[in-house]
Every structure is written in structure tokens, then in C-alpha cells.
Amino acid sequence: xxxxxxxxxxxxxxxxAARLPVEVRSRHAADLQRAERVExxxxxxxxxxxxxxxxxxxTFNTPRGAH
Length: 67
What we know:
Oligomer: single chain
Number of strands: 0
Helix content: over 70%
């Protein structure tokens, strides 16, 4: 798989793929893409948790730092 065929959404993972030697890049491409998807999913889950926590805090009027 050539480097131009690798699609990454984040600069970090594009840089990681670019730094791999050409002869091993295709071997690890799927792992790198999977790692990026896991990272992005984890970011979304954390953002959702923070929003839910804030909404619950507003709903029950919990003072910030009470816990």
C-alpha cells in the first residue's frame, strides 16, 4: 500500500505513517488506522461524558467541586 493511499484524519497519525520505512508501512497501515479510529472514538466518548456530567450537575444544582 502506498503512502498516498493511507487516509488519516489527524496529523499525528499521518506523521507516524510517514515516518515508517516504506517496506513496513503497508504491513502496519491497518493497525495505524485502527489506532486512530480508537483514539477518535475515545475522544468522542470523553466529550459525551463531560457533557452528560455538566447537564446532570445543572439539573441537580450540584455546586462545582462538591465531590
